[in-house]
């Protein structure tokens, strides 16, 4: 009986250890890849997109018009407001 318990513990321990190692390896790999994945916002290649509240068109944040804490595609739409 004690022998079975011993082997059960060995198997559980082995599984736990391999799981921890896999997790650690994946984490290490992720840390390595991260600098490439995160683009610098100043480069503007992956600029955040915003939506016009009137016509629902998507446009880069730098091209959007801001008014009343909302984003619009143009000054006309900012003036017209949300479509009713
Ligand atoms: Zn619009």
Structure explained in plain terms:
50% of the residues lie in helices and 14% in strands. The protein contains two helices and four strands; from the N terminus they run αββββα. The radius of gyration is 27 Å and the shape is rod-shaped. The strands form two sheets. A two-stranded antiparallel sheet has the order 1-2. A two-stranded antiparallel sheet has the order 3-4. With 84 residues, the protein is of the alpha+beta class. It has two domains: 2-38; 47-80. The chain has helices at residues 2-37, 75-80; strands spanning 49-51, 58-60, 65-67, 70-72. Zinc ion binds at residues 52, 54-55, 57, 72-74, 77.
Key attributes of the depicted protein:
two-stranded antiparallel ribbon, 2 domains, 2 helices, alpha+beta, single chain, 50% helix, binds zinc ion, 84 residues, 4 strands
């Amino acid at each position: 009986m004690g022998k079975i318990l011993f082997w059960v513990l060995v198997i559980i321990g082995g599984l736990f250890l391999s799981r921890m190692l896999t997790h650690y390896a994946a984490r290490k790999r992720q840390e390595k890849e991260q600098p490439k994945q995160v683009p610098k916002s100043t480069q503007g290649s992956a600029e955040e997109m915003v939506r016009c509240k009137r016509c629902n068109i998507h446009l880069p944040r730098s091209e959007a018009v801001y008014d009343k804490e909302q984003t619009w595609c143009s000054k006309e739409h900012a003036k017209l407001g949300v479509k009713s």
